[in-house]
Design brief:
alpha/beta; about 10% strand; about 220 residues; 6-stranded parallel sheet
């Protein structure tokens, strides 16, 4: 495993937000906003909400406007990140260990910067070398590799020298296609998914700590 920068996805890795987003998708997105069909969570997990709308509209049709769709996500995000989610066990200690080893740290997320800021402020996740959102790039987001290519460039390194921690199929594909060493973080919400495209799989918070504490 490379000993360079470590790039963390936020949703489902640093915080347990995917459980809440999946509930929102079941209760409103798939039930009301989708015109027909039965999308699976893994089809859209890891995408930005604008790209989720475009994907659902193309594959299933939509029953609401994009403006309504985006507004619904924004409204839910405030309480979801500000009240509902919990920080993954051990993240502060893991960050401290990686910083002490001199490894650059980044959050690379499909979430807007405003949502990332709620999480960072609530859980005191400061002192990062980079915070990159899909809204900051002009190229398509995950599963395309561009966001991880851009993150590596911003950190002044090659993607092959970076370690990416991802939980979604789309996010893992993006990291792998960028050429980064990819760690799949497996927890409750993605327990049944095939994460084998990643270089290795970390089973829960303890597994994630073990990946880095032996390498940092």
């Amino acid at each position: 495993m490379p000993d360079g920068a470590v790039l963390f996805d936020m949703d489902g890795v640093l915080v347990d937000s995917e459980t809440y987003w999946h509930r929102f998708e079941d209760e409103w997105v798939f039930a009301t906003a989708v015109a027909s069909g039965d999308p699976a969570h893994e089809e859209v997990t890891g995408m930005s909400y604008g790209e989720i709308y475009d994907y659902l509209d193309r594959e299933y049709g939509t029953a609401v406007s994009k403006a309504e769709f985006v507004s619904a996500y924004d409204d839910r995000a405030t309480s979801l990140y500000g009240e509902d989610v919990a920080l993954t066990d051990g993240v502060p200690d893991l960050f401290d260990t990686l910083r002490a080893a001199g490894r650059p740290l980044a959050i690379v997320s499909s979430a807007p910067q405003a949502w990332i800021s709620i999480v960072r402020e609530r859980f005191a996740l400061g002192d990062l070398d980079l915070v990159l959102s899909a809204e900051d790039i002009d190229e398509p987001g995950k599963p395309e590799p561009h966001i991880y290519e851009r993150a590596a460039a911003a950190l002044g390194c090659d993607p092959a020298d970076c370690v990416v921690v991802e939980d979604s199929v789309n996010g893992i594909e993006a990291a792998v296609r960028a050429g980064a060493f990819t760690v799949a973080y497996r927890t409750t919400h993605n327990a049944a998914l095939d994460l084998s495209q990643a270089d290795l799989v970390a089973e829960g918070p303890e597994g994630l700590r073990d990946v880095f504490l032996g390498e940092a």
